[in-house]
Amino acid sequence: MAMILILDDRATNRSIYARLASVIEDNVSVEVFGNPVDALEWLEGNRVDLVITDFKMPEMDGAEFTRHFRALPGGAGVPVLVVTAHDDRSFRVRALDAGATDFLQSPIDHFELVTRARNLLALGRRVQGEPVAAAEPPARPAALDPLQVHGAEGLARILDSLPAQVSAADRDGRCIYANAAFAAAVGARPSELLGAGPTLLFGPDRGERSRRADLEVLARGAPLPPYREEGAGGHLLTSKAPLRDARGTVTAVITTSIPLGPEPER
Hints:
InterPro entries: Bact_response_regulator, CheY-like_superfamily, PAS, PAS-like_dom_sf, PAS_4, Sig_transdc_resp-reg_receiver. The protein has ten helices and ten strands. It is α/β, with parallel strands linked by helices. The protein has two domains: 3-127, 3-Layer(aba) Sandwich (Rossmann fold); 163-261, Beta-Lactamase, CATH 3.30.450.20. 36% of the residues are buried. Residues 131-151 have low confidence and may be disordered.
């Protein structure tokens, strides 16, 4: 049974990562912390198989946390995945120099996080000479869309339980996925949104802005920094990231919007 530690000072991120971690493989246990000092105290008496940590946190950043963790008994061979929203190469260099195994920039592609974490668990077991707990999943056909691969139904159930509104649009702007929170926000069922364009999903103004942002992601092949926008019921913190197929080609854009509530009165 794999033990995964998740460290992030934002409760929303902890919730999302914990739910995604539960589908990495069978019988996963997850411990979550919002403070790196608390996490290190717990790690002194407990064993983990994978650490997923934010970079910018109070008291110490992800690089310093990783350095302290590596010095603990048993910490040298455990994979550490560092996640950050900051597009700063120095963060990556510092994290890797401190002993991080991999680095992922947010807004994250949920499918990529699950795949990377699964691969890191297997790597950690090989490094420590342990048997791999489960067989590697069969190679997926190159023609399949990432949303149709084996295990996507389980991941879709996890996405439906998130407080964030998650949707994906193909290169032509048609909706190919919507989770329950997104569908509820627009007053529809997820299945009713498939094939819909941005104007139908968001209205003319927001739909036009969303499509422009999607085109920028498709052109750059890189995520956009999170931005604040007005949605149904209040303000949202929205992020967009490319969704790639098995060959690495960007085939769609995944959009994640976290409700922030109504704009406070001034």
